[in-house]
Amino acid sequence: MLAEHEKLAREASEANEDYHGYLLRLSELELAARSTNALANRIKLASFPLMKELADFDFTLAPTVSKPRVLELARCQWIEQHHTAGLIGNSGTGKPRPT
Q1: What is the Cα–Cα distance from 38 to 33, expressed in whole angstroms?
Q2: Residues 18, 11: Cα–Cα separation, whole Å
Q3: Burial class (CB in 10 A: 0-12, 13-18, 19+), 66
Q4: Which residues contact 25 (CB under 8 A, 6 or more apart)?
Q5: In a 3-state reduction of DSSP, which class is residue 9?
Q6: What share of the chain is helix, strand, coil (3-state, %, to 5)?
Q7: What is the pLDDT of residues 3-56, one digit of tens each?
Q8: What's the half-sphere exposure (Cβ side, CA atoms, 13 Å) at 35?
């Protein structure tokens, strides 16, 4: 809150925002920052070897993994459609048969 209060106060003043709106936005920023920090701390405590993202995955090293299918699953529409997804395979080898 300390880092953002002046900037938000200035914006609230320029927009004729009331004090409650200013406090709400300031509190929302604080909650978002705490959530982000908590997630980072949980990842750190989990002692994962390193952070990996799907964008970094080299599909040429796992030719049996269907890139279009993986990217489709990554959009998570299957969750909204109440379907399940099972990724089967040994650890570290990629999962060749998403269902």
Answers
A1: 8
A2: 11
A3: middle
A4: 8, 12, 17
A5: helix
A6: 55, 0, 45
A7: 888 999 999 999 999 989 999 999 999 999 999 999 999 988 988 777 778 888
A8: 6
Cα separation of 22 and 15, whole Å? 10
pTM: 0.47
**Sign of torsion over alpha carbons 49, 54, 55, 56:** positive
What Cα–Cα distance (Å) separates residue 17 from each residue in 14, 26, 28, 71?
Answer: 8, 12, 15, 42
Q: In the structure encoding, which two tokens stand for residue 25, read together?
A: 């936005």
